[in-house]
């Protein structure tokens, strides 16, 4: 039997061997703290696992934690998270009833100059694939009525690499692998970067209102 040390030195290509079978969210979170399923754990401060109620009807999936999330260990607590909070409130979706997570649980970034915030770097497809056992376990445990994919990385992770948010956002589709209904929209960080932030925000808000209507809240 391989030891933990030998598994780590072999640079496992997937998180699957670290995911405890049949575990609840608390146990999954504890196990994820020691995940070595890809190399992103090395420069990151810590694993940023999902957060929210285990019986949430709505799950939001982003790309990966950002600089603030990496330091605090919680998803969506930085600038994009604050914009998400605002949009959820305006769409009449209570954040406290939402399970929030990311397709990738470690922060991938470009090293920053002294005193500056680290800038995120898009995870490679192999890194996303390596981390998906955690997301599958979260969906299986929470069993949400609807998953909202925030951005292209999350959408491709759940709906396949051929999915295009720009063409299919705001529509309900079925993710057969996860056995759940899904709506894809932009990531709130894309709204913050948009040339016309007001227009981008209104589009994002419109998608969240479709989410509310689908849930019947």
From TrEMBL:
Q: Does the keyword Hydrolase apply?
A: yes
Is Heme there in the keyword field? no
Q: Which Pfam families does the entry link to?
A: UDG
The record's annotation in SMART domains points to: UDG, UreE_C
Question: In this protein, which residues make up the domain named Uracil-DNA glycosylase-like?
Answer: 49-209
Q: Which keywords does this Swiss-Prot/TrEMBL entry list? A: 4Fe-4S, DNA damage, DNA repair, Hydrolase, Iron, Iron-sulfur, Metal-binding
Name the family: Belongs to the uracil-DNA glycosylase (UDG) superfamily. Type 4 (UDGa) family.
Give the NCBIfam families listed for this entry.
UDG_fam4, UDG_fam_dom
Which protein, by its recorded name, is this? Type-4 uracil-DNA glycosylase
């Amino acid at each position: 039997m391989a030891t933990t040390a030998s598994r780590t030195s072999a640079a496992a290509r997937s998180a699957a061997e670290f995911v405890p079978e049949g575990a609840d969210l608390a146990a999954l979170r504890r196990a994820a703290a020691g995940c070595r399923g890809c190399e992103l754990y090395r420069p990151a401060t810590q694993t940023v696992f999902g957060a929210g109620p285990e019986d949430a009807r709505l799950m939001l999936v982003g790309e990966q934690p950002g600089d603030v999330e990496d330091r605090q260990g919680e998803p969506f607590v930085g600038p994009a998270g604050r914009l998400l909070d605002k949009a959820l409130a305006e769409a009449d979706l209570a954040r406290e009833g939402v399970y929030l997570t990311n397709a990738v649980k470690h922060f991938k970034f470009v090293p920053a100059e002294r005193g500056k915030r680290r800038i995120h770097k898009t995870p490679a497809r192999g890194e996303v694939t390596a981390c998906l056992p955690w997301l599958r376990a979260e969906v299986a445990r929470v069993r949400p009525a609807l998953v909202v994919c925030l951005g292209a990385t999350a959408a491709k992770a759940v709906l396949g690499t051929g999915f295009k948010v720009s063409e299919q956002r705001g529509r309900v589709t079925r993710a057969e692998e996860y056995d759940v209904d899904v709506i894809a929209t932009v990531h709130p960080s894309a709204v913050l970067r948009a040339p016309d932030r007001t227009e981008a925000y209104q589009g994002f808000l419109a998608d969240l209102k479709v989410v509310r209507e689908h849930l019947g809240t």
